[in-house]
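Entry: ABC transporter substrate-binding protein
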Amino acid sequence: MRKAIFSLIVVCVLSLSGAVYAQSGEAPFTIGLLISHTDSSVFIDEMTSLGYIEGTDVNYRVMPLLLVESQVFEDQVPQLQEMIAEPVDIFVVDNDTGAMAIRAYAPDIPVVFTISDDPVANGTVADITTPGGNTTGLMTNRHHERRLQLLTEVIPTTKSVYYLYYAPASDSVTIFNQVTELGEELGVEVIGAPITDLESAMTLLQEAPEDIDWLFITPYVPFDNEDFTELLLATSESHHAPIAGFFAAVVPGYLVSYGPDLPAVTRHAAQIVDRIFRGADPGELPIGIVENGLVIDLTVADSMGIDVPIAVLRQADLIVHPGDADTTTETGG
């Protein structure tokens, strides 16, 4: 049996009696869908599968939320304020940074974030089991630290990684410190490259030390920008330093990708919204913990002359084989 990329530890318990939504004559729910890491259709399709018919039971106001230093971009504020005035019944955002930004404008509207590394440490929620207030969501299982450990298993001679991170993100420094501490235990130097915008990202790549063993990508880094991607791949080749991504998906040029499956966590967020629409208090819903998935691209490994140990391959959830880039093979995990 083919294995899914990852499984969620916390599974929403759904009532067998069907969804409880706006009754005849009542206005449908309105969701402010502000996610950008996954197509909004993934969330909407999951809500549909839970019994919410668009236009009858629920309406969506879609706007990928753009943030700068935890603040909403000025040109998005009017649209956000229109949503609040409508009003929307709940906001769904990418992450805890987005949740805190929304709360500054709409402290009384529930917010569900789809991913976070440590929502307690950065002050988004009070507690994992009882978040408090009207915010809840999902968090990772400290996947950046495990990813660093995996890199030393892929290349046992690893001595340094170039850690590119978006400095304005609320938890970026905390996570960088956690990874750095683990690096000290592993004998690996974690070289921080704090990015503030696309220009700084390009500059930091151009200034990458010659002797790095890995390029370590983290959230909010402009990896989806064409110019940045081109330079990232060129830097990987010139430095003979493979790229390690942070979510469980095949990304061209990345040898290792480790982290959550973003479409899966988006569907899970829809299940949390369903529970809130049924009457659950967001502040009483525990933060869900998601498992991480490991993707290994042997096409990249072969092109760089890297022999990935069988012990690592046995941990992989998804393997891309040379000569068959469009076909993926799932294995044990």
